[in-house]
Amino acid sequence: PAGRAVQIQLRKDGYPIATTTVEVEEGQTRTVELKLCRPKAERRCEGTTVRWFDDCGAAGEVAESCAAGKVCKGDQCVDPPRECAQRTCQGNAVFCIDGAGKQFADPEQACAAGQVCREGQCREFDPCQSRRCDGRRVLCVDSEGKLAREPAETCKVDQQCLDGACVDVPKPCQSRVCVGEAIHCVDSAGVTSARPEKTCRAGKERCEEGKCVAVDPPPTTVPPPRPCVTRKCVGKQVFCVDENGRPDTKPEKTCSADESCSDGRCIAVPKCADRKCLGNQVFCVDENGRPAGKPEKTCSADESCSDGKCVTVDKCAQKKCVGQQIFCVDGNGATAAQAQQTCTDTQQCSDGRCVEVPQCVSERCVGNQVFCFDGRGAQAPQPKQSCGANQTCSNGKCADVVVPPPVPPTPPTTQTAPKPGLMKAPPTPPRKSTEQRCAGKKHGNYCQDGDIWSYECGQGRRAQDCAGGQCCNTSKGAQCWVGGCPE
Q1: In this structure, how many other beta carbons lie within 10 angstroms of the beta carbon of residue 161?
Q2: Which residues contact 305 (CB under 8 A, 6 or more apart)?
Q3: In this structure, what DSSP letter does residue 485 have?
Q4: What is the tally of helices (H) and strands (E) in the chain?
């Protein structure tokens, strides 16, 4: 057709090996050069399918369909990448943990020199990240929250430690200011004293620039007016009161936000006379005991507020045992989520420590063998001694069995005819051996009253006293055992 794009395609065995598109006009003849395309030149992903493409970029047949749970990446089906749900520290490296709680084999990041791995992150180690006061000593707190033993600085005699720094002790009365008609001292820190050093004489003096200045007397011919015999406070304003006790209509002075009105004068109120804790925050408290509206400081998660200061909480103030594991307990009494140490099979956790358990505290009989028992009452897997054929196990020892010597047989007696008038005496029965006398009677050990008893020729006797929290247990072969007596 004229004026239209025509696609020309060369196929071999039904597969396109060359394709091109040309513009033709009616009656026009064009020669077209076709580029042969090599089939199955490369594999590419289409969604979850791997498809063949020729070197001209045309898609071919499907090479592979990814199975369930697989994803197509590059030119093949692979397992989906594991996502890092959380991170943890192992040594000085950061490792990923997936959603199933399995840790990756290779570290995600190795912390560089001068860094430490904490809470799944590489952090710069600062030996003196912050400072705190210990009396007149300034101690460094490193980036791990550990307090240095040696002081970074010791304050001088005329200094005090405040908020981790040595500052000069305020010197009293370095200057003086007027508060109404009273003179107040101001120390080197700029704090005005609460009590006046001097009060100027009413009507004769006035306070100017921290001094009492004499008031010029009025002319003798005219009686001096006395509009301000005294002063009184109304809220935070100072009013003059005349000799008739009437206050002026306008205030003589309005106290500032940092002052309070008392006895007709404005008195400077210290902004932070003291500090106190409200929750985990530090608040300034004025001389009237009123806390400020906003906190001066909020303690961090690793700190607790105590006596108006943020104090670092010891993460391992003490240790305690939970089963066979040792856990840290911080300064607030909270137990750590992970155990610090797990005691071995030969150890026992006691008072926050792994203590070696003595392996052979006592020796006891089990059957005709001697076994060791450790400090927890556990029996050793192998016997220490096996008693011989002519021995018996008693009180944790192998003892020889004493066999009494055989009794010689009684010689036969001759029968003689009794004399007339005499009765014939019965023959003397032969003496029985120990085995014959004890035949059919009980032998062996048994439990009675929590101790071990033994049958000897049918007669019971106490063989061993179980002491030290032990009692006789027949399930252990009539042995003294720790942990209760089921009988």
Answers
A1: 21
A2: 277, 278, 279, 280, 281, 282, 299, 311
A3: -
A4: 1, 47
Q: Phi then psi for 88, rounded to 5 degrees?
A: -140, 165
- Tell me the two tokens of residue 463: 């063989």
62 and 49 Cβ atoms separated by less than 8 Å: yes
Q: Which residue has the tokens 């106290």?
A: 255
Q: Is the dihedral of CA 418, 424, 430, 436 positive or negative?
A: positive
Structure letter (DSSP) for residue 213: E
Report helix, strand or coil for 437: helix
State the Cα–Cα distance between residues 49 and 76, nearest whole angstrom. Answer: 9
Reduce the DSSP state of residue 37 to 3 states and report it. coil
Contacts by residues 479-487 (CB-CB < 8 Å, ≥ 24 positions apart): 479/364, 479/365, 479/366, 479/452, 480/362, 480/364, 480/451, 480/452, 481/377, 482/373, 482/376, 482/377, 483/377, 485/447, 485/450, 487/447
Whole-angstrom CA distances from 133 to 29, 198, 278, 281 are 98, 37, 21, 18
The CA angle 384-387-393, to the nearest 5 degrees, is 90
- Cβ neighbours, 10 Å, residue 248: 15
Counting every residue written for the chain, the total comes to 487
Tell me if residue 300 falls in helix, strand or coil.
Answer: coil
Beta pairing partners, 300: none
Q: Cα–Cα distance between 188 and 373 in angstroms, integer?
A: 76
Least confident residue range of 3-7, 23-27, 153-157, 317-321 = 3-7
How much is the pLDDT for 487? 42
Tokens read off for 345? 């099979």
Provide the 8-state DSSP code for 428: P
Distances (CA, A) of 338 to 37, 99, 325, 326, 327: 64, 19, 10, 9, 7
What's the rounded Cα separation, in Å, for the pair 52 and 63? 6
Alpha carbon distance 254, 26 (integer Å): 104
Q: Is 308 left (phi over 0), alpha (psi -120 to 50) or beta?
A: left
197: three-class secondary structure by DSSP: coil
Q: Which region holds residue 449: left if phi is over 0, alpha if psi is between -120 and 50, else beta? A: left
Lookup result for tokens 């005499």: 422
The percent of residues above 70 in pLDDT, for the chain, comes to 78
Residue 1 has a pLDDT of 45
CA 394 to chain centre: 52
pLDDT tens figures, 450-487: 777 776 665 677 777 776 557 777 665 677 766 555 44
Report which of 306, 351, 301 is spatially closest to residue 327, judged by C-alpha positions.
351
Q: What is the pTM of this model?
A: 0.24
Calculate ∠ Cα 216-222-224, nearest 5°: 50
Q: Residue 3 and residue 28: Cα distance in Å, rounded?
A: 10
What is the CB-side half-sphere exposure of residue 423 using CA atoms within 13 A?
Answer: 3
